[in-house]
Amino acid sequence: MKSILSLLVAGTLCFSAAAQPVARTKHLIIITIDGFRWQEVFTGADPLLVANPDYVRDTALTRGMYWDSTAELRRQKLLPFFWGTLATKGRLYGNRLWGNKVNVRNFYKISYPGYNEMSVGFPNPDITSNEFGPNPNASVFEWLNKSPDLSGRVAIYGTWRTYVDIFNEPRSHLAMQAGWATAPRTNDAARDTLLARLFDTTTRFDEEDVGNSFLQVELLDYVRTGKPRVLFVGYGETDNWAHQGRYDLVLESAHRTDGFVKELWDTLQAMPQYHGTTTFIITADHGRGSGPVEWKDHGVHQKGSENVWIAVIGPDTPALGERTNIAPVMQAQIAATVAALIGKDYRKDVPRAAPAIADVLKGP
Length: 364
Description:
Layout: H1 2-19, E1 27-33, H2 38-43, H3 59-66, H4 71-78, H5 80-89, E2 91-93, E3 102-103, H6 111-120, H7 140-145, E4 154-158, H8 163-166, H9 169-172, E5 175-178, H10 189-201, H11 212-225, E6 230-235, H12 237-243, H13 247-269, E7 278-283, E8 307-308, E9 310-313, E10 321-322, E11 329-330, H14 334-341, H15 346-349
Helix pairs in contact: 4-5, 11-13, 12-13
């Protein structure tokens, strides 16, 4: 009887262990493509805009690069890594044509409130503009950085100078590179000199936003040397060109950003400590309007600004591609999802935060 009981207990323990998904994510990268619409993500170049000479300088060239007969072909042309790798090995949320929604909860539907919502876990009605100043709310990145096993290995890298306020650099003490701040030095003096010269002599789009290509150089240097566990990456050009009414450059920047994401993924997968242990979450801070004029802007008065999207790829998120017939996902759920994937319970300390996206956490 004792041997039979022992076998039953042992079998039960083995079954329980097998039934519990094992978190394999050790490194988490969240990437934002500022103001990039779900329409382009899921259907490619917009037929109302791609041949409009008001927004496209060379319509023949742009159509040749990004247009095709179906939405599936157009989106693959625009975002080859997204649809060639993320869509086949991860999960995608936000295709409203399939009834799959990702919604922003904050009222203002602009950048600062959006980044606050996704990184803190709830909207702050006091944050009404991008010039709000230092964020009184501690982000999930600041919270994670206080964990002994993550301290000093959580970082913010983005093109927009305002990330310094959004993630409150003086209080959070996060490793941070934002905007036109001087690039950190590496062990390659010639490389440092060249990058410093480019920073000093490049004509700037504005004083807040460095180009995505500049960020990419700094970012790849950092992941190779700093080896972060949790990393926020913010690419901003798509929003800037949309506000300028340059739809051709929105498409070009989105295509190049897709290449930057691929480069970052490939770089990490080639590093032994990141291979097979890294999850990417890719999203946007807000949507924008639709139609021949409204697409340029976003905010309270632009219908559609609340519509965003999320893509997830990693060892704990089975490859199911585009999701359908699930409850709407909220931007505010990203913070707890980031923590949960890295093995932390954010809501235990921040109960006000929205719960993690359960569909992302269904293990293999």
